[in-house]
Amino acid sequence: MSDSTQHKFYESKCTQLTQEKDIRFAGIIDESGKLVAGGFKTGIIPLENNENKLDDFIEFASRVSLRKEFDKTLGPINYLAARRDKLVLVSFPFPISRFVLLISAEPTVDIENLAKRVVSIFSVAS
After folding, report:
1. How far apart are CA 2 and CA 93, in angstroms?
2. Which CATH superfamily groups domain 3-123?
3. Taking the complete model, does pTM exceed 0.90, yes or no?
């Protein structure tokens, strides 16, 4: 898949995710922690208004999601979830491409159903 085709694919999937009721943000992060596709749902104002802090968090989520030291004994990471008072953060590593899908959602979201929905959306070719 060419970079342009891959970008369109990820952009399309992130857009599809942000149309879901509880999702605030869906973005593809590269291994250096940079946003390469996706973003906030239209009309959503980030809770973290300091862009440097947001970038630092995205980089951190990417690093943690791509760690592999326990893969041999525990299996690979399917997703990581953090529930906070104001939102839920879920990251899905794509080990082959070394990308991470990062999602922020409303605190009312059902994480397991969200994970199933992500797998469903990314399993369908566009």
Report:
1. 20
2. Dynein light chain 2a, cytoplasmic (3.30.450.30)
3. no
